[in-house]
Request: fold
Amino acid sequence: QVQLVESGGGLVQAGGSLKLSCVLSGRTFSTYAMGWFRQAPGKEREFVAVISRSGTTTHYTDSVKGRFTISRDNARNTVSLQMDSLKPEDTGVYYCAADSRASQNSVAVAAGPYNYWGRGTQVTVSS
Reply:
């Protein structure tokens, strides 16, 4: 049974930083591509960032490029999302997701391929 647990959310002023972490348990972490998605109030869940199983491929949604950095530590079964220069429009619940079907260097930006999801962590950016 794969479990994903996110942490690191909170309230921050615009321009500030937060680091989200997600720990995967129950399976071998390195066999999963890992993604972050977010959902703002009244909006659909959207892709934020993804990192391949090998860690060599990353992809970001345009609105966070240059501000967010995704990374993974296979030894600690952890994927992180460093979020800098936060904006009010970054507010939402952030979800960690695992894709077991990705090849070593491929990534998916749609939610469909992800077969495991965490419960989410709230990020609120005040103006």
The two ends are 40 Å apart (CA to CA). The CA atoms of residues 91 and 124 lie 5 Å apart. The mean pLDDT is 96.
